[in-house]
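Input (structure):
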């Protein structure tokens, strides 16, 4: 299949996985014992009220509006363009600056550029508890992701701000990260939390397949993956909602996520689908044999992304609510998550910048 063939599918509103590089994704995990257990914890009303109050006071849309304006200022974020490389470099620098602005000696942070055969990099940020002696290979990961690229389906190197698809998901994940480090979140023992910003979702989930295949080959344990894609669009005359896809997702993990919405979010939730048009990076993790879910905006049926859309048709309030819900990361009760009153000037995250070899 050529790039032109893929563009024609996109023009028809069809989503797909380009499995050229990873035709056997999931084969290794299929041979391994099942070890990924979905969460089964109750959510206390007292805890819900406390978290709601904390989130309401800590999170605003100011950062999100500035971030999405910057992302959409790139001519395009196409994974095959120099603009796509520049935008991915900005994502890397931006998340690094969020960490640098919130120093803590309680967490160890690694910010990574994950290279691909195309010019755009994926970006991976990992949080570990500094005092957790669990070997990295034994830890379970909780992953929150979005795709950073955009694409003009008709003219692939022309203007494609991609404010909603998926600038909105990208800044939602920025805000989740920012809120956690501002509140001095520390992952519980035996668990690491990762934030992923994937390259080349629009090319057939190319970036996330590379990452998922790397993790599968390494035997990495992934407790759950949440994909945030198109989280800001609210159709005129409709009620803002957080929607969960029913296609190619882990049903039990989705059910747990709906309980989180009920407990922590001011918005209601609904289930949605788009049949053969459904597609985002959660599919790479599902295919690799890991529990994955997909959160988006309202009712998705009948709505196609407009690659050149700007903020006129979207709103960051919906993304804000997605951030509030996602802060209660499935199966990761924080050992430390409190309102920050002072910020140390000497303590700092241990931050390293690395690249995986292709």
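Output (sequence):
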């Amino acid at each position: 299949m050529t790039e032109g063939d893929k563009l024609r599918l996109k023009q028809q509103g069809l989503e797909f996985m380009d499995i050229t590089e990873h035709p056997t994704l999931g084969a290794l995990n299929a041979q391994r014992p099942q070890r990924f257990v979905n969460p089964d914890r109750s959510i206390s009303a007292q805890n819900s009220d406390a978290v709601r109050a904390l989130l309401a006071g800590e999170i605003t849309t100011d950062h999100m509006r500035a971030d999405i304006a910057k992302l959409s200022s790139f001519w395009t974020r196409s994974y095959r363009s120099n603009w796509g490389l520049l935008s991915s470099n900005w994502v890397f620098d931006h998340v690094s600056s969020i960490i640098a602005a919130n120093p803590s000696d309680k967490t160890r942070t690694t910010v990574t550029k994950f290279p691909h055969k195309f010019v755009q990099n994926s970006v991976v940020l990992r949080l570990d508890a500094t005092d957790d002696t669990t070997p990295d290979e034994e830890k379970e990961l909780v992953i929150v992701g979005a795709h950073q690229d955009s694409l003009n389906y008709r003219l692939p190197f022309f203007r494609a701000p991609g404010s909603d698809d998926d600038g909105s998901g990208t800044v939602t994940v920025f805000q989740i990260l920012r809120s956690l480090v501002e509140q001095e979140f520390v992952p519980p023992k035996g668990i690491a939390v990762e934030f992923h910003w994937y390259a080349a979702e629009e090319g057939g989930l190319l970036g996330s397949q590379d990452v998922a295949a790397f993790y599968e080959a390494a035997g990495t344990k992934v407790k759950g993956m949440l994909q945030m894609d198109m989280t800001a669009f609210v159709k005129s005359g409709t009620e803002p909602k957080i929607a969960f896809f029913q296609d190619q997702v882990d049903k039990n993990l989705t059910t747990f996520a709906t309980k989180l919405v009920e407990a922590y979010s001011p918005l209601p939730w609904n289930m949605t689908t788009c049949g053969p048009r459904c597609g985002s990076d959660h599919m790479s993790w599902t295919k690799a044999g890991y529990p994955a879910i997909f959160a988006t905006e309202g009712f998705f049926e009948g709505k196609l992304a407009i690659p050149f859309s700007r903020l006129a048709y979207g709103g960051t309030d919906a993304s804000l609510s997605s951030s509030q819900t996602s802060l209660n990361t499935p199966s990761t009760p924080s050992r430390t998550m409190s309102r920050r009153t002072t910020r140390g000037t000497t303590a700092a995250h241990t931050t390293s910048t690395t690249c995986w070899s292709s």
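Notes: The chain has one domain: 3-11+61-355. The beta strands are 107-114, 122-129, 140-147, 191-198, 221-228, 242-245, 269-272, 292-297, 350-355.
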